Here is the input.
Amino acid sequence: MSTRAPIPDTSLGQQAHAEGGYQLIAKPDEVTHLVCCRDASWGKAFCGAVTSEINFSVQRLCTMCVEEAEAMLPGCSTNEETLCPVDGNRCPDEHEIELRIARATDPT
Ligand SMILES: [Zn+2]
Ligand SMILES: [Zn+2]
Here is the structure.
């Protein structure tokens, strides 16, 4: 008698359709593109790929993104300190990046 809609898997959070709503994913097998941590928008990666996903389970980096970053700042991908290939400054610390990810994936 009753009709039931399949319950969406919300374990990774609601899918956001808000402006700039990025989706947090955890896919170790997925190739992850690089963006500048300070970039105003994370919609476009160094290699030009357009993405709306933030993968926090990064194991495979996009080789084109790494090449682009290396071209902008040689050695940046192997530096111990993470320097931003765009402006050569140190990247914000993890806490700051986490805050920004939280904002970017917040549907409100
Ligand atoms: Zn890429
Ligand atoms: Zn940066």
Residues 8-19 have pLDDT under 50 and may be disordered. The two ends are 36 Å apart (CA to CA). The chain has one domain: 23-99. The longest strand covers residues 23-25.
